[in-house]
From TrEMBL:
Predominant location: membrane
Location within or outside the cell: Cell membrane
UniProtKB keywords: Cell membrane, Membrane, Transmembrane, Transmembrane helix
PANTHER family: MEMBRANE COMPONENT OF ABC TRANSPORTER YHHJ-RELATED, MULTIDRUG ABC TRANSPORTER PERMEASE YBHS-RELATED
ABC-type uncharacterised transport system domain sequence ranges: 562-879
The protein's name: Gldg family protein
Membrane topology of this protein: Multi-pass membrane protein
Organism: Shewanella yunxiaonensis
Segments forming domain DUF7088: 283-381
Source species taxonomy: Bacteria, Pseudomonadati, Pseudomonadota, Gammaproteobacteria, Alteromonadales
Pfam families registered for this protein in UniProt: ABC2_membrane_2 (PF12679), ABC_transp_aux (PF09822), DUF7088 (PF23357)
Keyword Membrane: yes
Domain of life of the organism encoding this protein: Bacteria
InterPro entries linked to this entry: ABC-2_transporter_component (IPR051449), ABC_transp_unknown (IPR019196), DUF7088 (IPR055396)
Transmembrane segments: 21-44, 56-74, 95-113, 133-153, 160-178, 216-232, 253-274, 916-933
Length: 951
């Protein structure tokens, strides 16, 4: 090792003996920064990562390594020093590894000088260091392979220029063999084989942030192959002009065996998928515990079938192997419960017919264009998850995310694990919903019936009481001993009646004006400390009662398909820019059953698990009563409302908006101020701008900072609440401040989910159009003292009804009824005009102070600003549903998104500052190296003078 270090030191120092060394390093670094900031458009991408640097690294490294290695052996041959080296006591292996170590150290130095780039990016946004570390590790391994190739090519000739050309050609072939331009000529199976031979494909695999043993060994095998060939070449130079003998043949045989073994080891390691390290934030490329959680619930075999065409769009083709690898992970993690198949319908007519008839899968048409041709290609890119008689189809839109600006497109996998696991959860829940909910419930379930004696019940309920016993007996047989029943009569037990009033708000009911006798008729289910109230069905018959009990059992059982009742404005196609929520419906429908709710009858669907109220307007007293009573039953309510509504059409116009919820929210300690929040940390808004060019006025769309779009990230998203802990970023448009009255909130847990920055302010101005001439910084005049405002709040705990002590709005408005209202006691079940006065501890209320939140027009505006479909508002709602319905596994899986977020909006001068800073730091590094080398030369000179003096 001492001799190898001495040779490496000599080669390393010799590289800096000429100015060419600094020219090579300077050119490499300048090209790297030029690629990042200009070619890839770093600030135009608006993403906190350095992927453009590593995307171009395999190509840039070819020329850097070729320039470093071209003189290694060729100069020795040209100057005649090679004979001295080969006849010296130093073994040729040590000579090769000495030069190899020196070249690798030079590349490491060049990469070290690029470190200012990721460091400065980390100050701009939340940088995921896993892909960065992977990128540098991949660059070193790639450089090692190229160096081995370059050293071998340099040993083949005594001309440095020829060695340079040979190295570029061979390394270029290893790079080009896996490029889409070549693999597109074949099917994806042949293309997958070609990519496995390519240095670029393995490089891109590591730069994801995953250190895979197969990728690392690929580069090591290239090093081993070309080092062996290099040794054989040096030996042949030593044999020059000597007759052939057995030792020569032995060298060739050993070298050939070494090369074959290096290649064979790649084939042996191909099925070894577990030997890898996922360094990404949240381990994005490792099957999560959430996915394994749902795989453990499988009771029957699950089929995952991938429909992929042999020839597909060039941008999609590299993603097919990644999807296949992920799907195979499910098969491994399931313990043989999951069967994975891959089918090309265009090569199998029977499979194509089955895909179309059974799953409704048809090929997608993609336009392809190159410099010489253009055309339309039809191909398949679908995944089917089938479980029992249930199935879910994932298409191109579910798996792929397209980002782009102008002519540049970046096609990546969106979050395939979440899509696949959600589909598994979906079919599993649908299948379970068709069976017995008791199979998914741990422990015993106790049915509590708090009812008066049959002769004290009204006539309709007397018959229902007898039918209840029949339903419970049938369920008891289905439950296999898990269902216990218990009936109590609170009418004859004052202590029980008092306990029920305190715990649930239950009180005696009355049938109506004609029947004034009080009675009790309440039903609950209990399992492990969880309580679910069973509401009386609207139709008092046996079938409706059975459905009501089964719906309560499904709410108690984990894993059943949940129902979201959506209250949202209906699309008004006559009014452009109006609020519509078709994108939200489509997104939620992937994992939940979404029903449109009409609150005009004063009731919420019995099977609803979550009530989502978006931009309500002038809610009636009955509608308000329906929301209130759903909350009192222990349900979860999410409301998105604001005192202002903004119409997005040809111009931005704001007008006052009356939701009818003000008094109701104030009762629970929440007040929305009649102002809107403006935040200097904001997202961009596409606005038309006029520009004068040569006397001609041109109108173009530019992305300009818009303070009414607060860009929330970091501590602005509550880290203590699961809804926002993993969200990463959220843009909340046209939001108002929320004031919380802790006295009215009482002992309920209050979480401020969303907060504006400390530099934000609020305004009651109705003018939403920015004036960048008068206020160039933000477009609006700052009002008042800057402060942070709560924009979304969640309350959890026991609520007291807004209608407590008041007559039910469902009793009509005639004078006789009003008289009865004044004297009637409150009841608990609103089927009989009663009021539930208290909610259990499981009730949750989420308030988002924005009317346009998650509307189609807002999502389109924000997507246009990012050049990709913006899903964060829908992710926020989905997280709220999962949190409210206590589905931690899926909520954790949704958090496994990429950490790279959009950067905080930067003005042009700020972008130039960061760019010049990187160039300055690189230049400083080169200057330090020059000073170090100059100091080394001075010390060497002094040492030589000392040696001469001693002589």
């Amino acid at each position: 090792m001492a001799e190898i270090r001495q040779i490496a030191r000599k080669e390393f120092r010799g590289f800096f003996n000429s100015p060419a060394a600094f020219l090579f390093l300077g050119a490499f670094l300048a090209v790297c920064l030029f690629v990042v900031f200009w070619v890839a458009g770093f600030f135009a991408r608006n993403i906190a990562d350095i992927r453009p640097l590593f995307q171009w690294m395999p190509l840039l490294m070819i020329f850097l390594v070729a320039a470093l290695t071209m003189r290694s052996w060729s100069e020795e041959q040209r100057s005649g020093t090679l004979e001295s080296l080969l006849t010296s006591p130093v073994a040729p292996l040590k000579l090769v590894f000495g030069k190899f170590a020196a070249m690798l150290s030079l590349v490491a130095l060049a990469l070290l000088l690029t470190l200012p780039l990721p460091i400065t990016v980390s100050f701009m946004g939340p940088l995921d260091w896993g892909p960065v570390i992977g990128g540098y590790v991949a660059s070193l391994f790639l450089a090692a392979a190229y160096i081995a190739i370059g050293l071998y090519m340099s040993s083949r000739t005594d001309n440095a220029i020829v060695a340079l050309i040979l190295t570029v050609v061979v390394c270029g072939l290893f790079y080009l063999i896996g490029t889409p331009q070549l693999t597109n000529l074949f099917g994806y199976e042949t293309g997958d084989l070609l990519r496995s031979l390519s240095t670029d494909a393995h490089f891109q695999s590591i730069t994801r942030g995953v250190l895979d043993l197969r990728d690392l060994y690929y580069y090591l095998s290239l090093v081993g192959i070309f080092v062996a060939l290099n040794l054989l070449r040096l030996e042949r130079l030593r044999w020059a002009n000597n007759p052939e003998n057995a030792r020569h043949r032995q060298w060739r045989l050993v070298t050939g065996l070494a090369v074959v073994n290096f290649i064979a080891a790649n084939l042996w390691l191909a099925p070894v998928g577990w030997a890898r390290l996922d360094m990404t934030h949240g381990q994005q490329y490792t099957l999560s515990d959430a996915s394994k959680h749902y795989l453990q619930q499988l009771q029957e075999p699950l089929l995952i079938r991938g429909y992929f065409s042999a020839k597909t769009h060039p941008l999609l083709e590299p993603l097919v192997p990644q999807v296949k690898d992920l799907l195979e992970e499910y098969a491994v993690a399931s313990g043989n419960k999951v069967r994975v198949e891959f089918v090309d319908p265009q090569k199998n007519q029977k499979a194509e017919q089955e895909a179309a008839s059974r799953y409704g899968i048809k090929p997608l048409s993609f336009e392809t264009a190159s410099k010489y041709s253009a055309g339309v290609m039809s191909s398949y890119f679908n995944v089917v998850i089938a479980y029992g008689d249930q199935y879910k189809v994932l298409g191109y839109q579910d798996l792929i995310e397209v980002k782009g600006r102008g002519d540049h497109l970046d096609v990546v996998l969106k979050n395939p694990e979440y899509a696949v696991t959600s589909a598994i959860r979906n079919v599993l829940h649908k299948w379970q919903a068709g069976g017995s909910p008791f199979d998914a419930i741990n422990g015993k379930v106790t049915f509590h019936g708090y009812m008066s004696a049959t002769d004290h019940l009204p006539q309709p309920l007397q018959k229902l009481r007898g039918e209840l016993d029949e339903v419970l007996n049938a369920l008891g047989k289905q439950a296999d001993g898990k269902l216990l029943t218990q009936f109590d009569d609170p009418q004859n037990n004052s202590e029980l009646a008092k306990t029920l009033k305190q715990q649930y708000g239950f009180e005696p009911q009355i049938m109506g004006l004609t029947d004034r006798h009080p009675f009790w008729f309440y039903m609950t289910l209990e399992n492990g400390g969880s309580h679910v109230q069973i509401p009386l069905p609207e139709k008092l018959d046996k079938d409706a009662l059975k459905r009501s009990i089964q719906a309560a059992l499904q709410r108690l059982a984990p894993g059943f398909m949940k129902t979201v009742a959506l209250v949202a404005p209906k699309p008004n196609y006559m009014q452009p820019g109006g609020a519509s929520y078709s994108m939200l419906r489509q997104s939620l429908s992937k994992n939940l059953r979404v029903v449109d709710e009409d609150l005009s009858d004063g009731k919420v669907s019995q099977d609803a698990d979550f009530l989502l109220v978006m931009a309500p307007e002038n809610l009636s007293n009955k509608a308000l009563f329906a929301i209130d009573q759903f909350l009192m039953r222990g349900g979860s309510v999410m409301v998105a409302t604001s005192p202002y509504d903004v119409n997005v059409s040809e111009s931005l116009t704001a007008h006052e908006h009356q939701s009818g919820l003000d008094k109701w929210l104030n009762h629970y300690g929440l007040t929305i101020d009649k102002r809107m929040v403006l935040d200097p940390r904001n997202a961009a808004l596409p606005l038309p701008v006029e520009r004068n060019v040569g006397g001609i006025t041109l109108r173009e769309i530019r992305m300009l900072p818009y303070p009414y779009f607060p860009d929330l990230r970091g501590n602005q998203l509550s880290p203590d609440n699961p809804v926002t802990a993993q969200l990463g970023q959220l843009t909340l448009n046209w939001a108002s401040p929320v004031a919380v009255d802790s006295k009215k909130a009482g002992n309920r847990d209050i979480s401020k989910l969303l907060l504006s920055s400390a530099d934000s302010w609020s305004s009651a101005n109705m003018n939403m159009v920015p004036d960048y001439r008068g206020y160039p910084r933000n477009g609006f005049k700052q009002e008042g003292k800057p402060q942070s405002y709560p924009l979304a709040v969640a309350e959890t705990g026991s609520f007291d009804s807004f209608f407590a002590g008041k007559p039910s709005p469902l009793l009509g408005d005639d004078s006789a009824t009003k008289t009865a209202k004044a004297t009637a006691k409150t009841a608990t079940d609103n089927s009989f005009g009663g009021v539930i006065e208290h909610s259990p501890e499981s009730a949750r209320l989420i308030l988002v102070a924005s009317n346009g939140f998650a509307s189609d027009s807002s999502l389109q505006l924000e997507s246009q600003g990012l050049s990709t479909f913006y899903t964060k508002p829908m992710d926020f709602i989905q997280n709220s549903i999962d949190w409210s319905l206590e589905d931690p596994a899926l909520l954790a899986l949704r958090g496994r998104t990429q950490l790279a977020r959009t950067l905080i909006g930067m003005k042009l001068e700020q972008q130039q500052y960061w760019e010049y800073l990187n160039y300055g730091l690189v230049l400083l590094g080169l200057v330090l190296i020059w000073l170090w080398r100059r100091q080394v030369k001075i010390s060497d000179l002094r040492r030589y003078q000392q040696i001469l003096a001693e002589v």
